[in-house]
Amino acid sequence: MAKLKNKHKAFIVKQLACLEAPNEIVAQLKKRFDVEVSQAQVAYYNPNGSQGSRELAQKWRHLFDETRDRFIADSSQIPISHKNYRLKELQKIYEKLLQQGNLTEACKVLEQVAKEMGGAYAGNITPEIQVNDGNFYERVNKKIIEQNKNSLN
Question: Of 15, 47, 51, 113, which sits 20 to 30 A from 121 (CA to CA)?
Fold first, then answer.
């Protein structure tokens, strides 16, 4: 196993504080720094983990706590936490499913988008956006079939 430099230790501590799994950190260290370490070596730097070292230097504990606090308080750095990003990704999935002719799964994506737009995931869905009325799939399937017919003409 490699002898870790401070930049590697800081990387490990920050990744652990951001809830990365040790096996992912091992892979990232290899890819980014060409450094090979074991999962146990990574776990040593998690002061809150079951394998975390009681001997871990105070500076690493402080960095861990500071990074964890920022991570928990600020979700803005996580793309999927933003509604527009989720909609953009759902659009890509929807288009791919249509290209594959998978209308059933495309309908499910449309339902998810309707819930997202109506605030279902925020707990404030509006009655006009509710999609659990039983006719949703029928309406969506009809619309998709019409669009496909129009695109063939």
Answer: 15
Query: Dihedral through CA 48, CA 51, CA 56, CA 59, nearest 10?
Result: -40
Write out pLDDT tens, residues 113-147.
988 888 655 555 444 444 455 566 566 666 666 76
Instruction: Kindly give, in sequence order, each residue whose CB lies less than 8 Å from that of residue 132, ignoring residues fewer than 6 positions away.
Output: none
> Are residues 128 and 106 both part of a single domain?
yes
And the tokens for 69? 């606090």
pLDDT tens readout for residues 13-60: 999 999 999 999 999 999 999 999 999 999 999 998 766 667 889 999
Distance (Å, whole) CA 131 – CA 48: 43
Among 53, 74, 95, the domain boundary falls at: 74
Residue 10 in any domain: the answer is yes
The residue whose two tokens read 């039983």 is 134
Cα distance between residue 78 and residue 21, in whole Å: 16
If DSSP codes are grouped into helix, strand and coil, which group holds residue 31?
A: helix
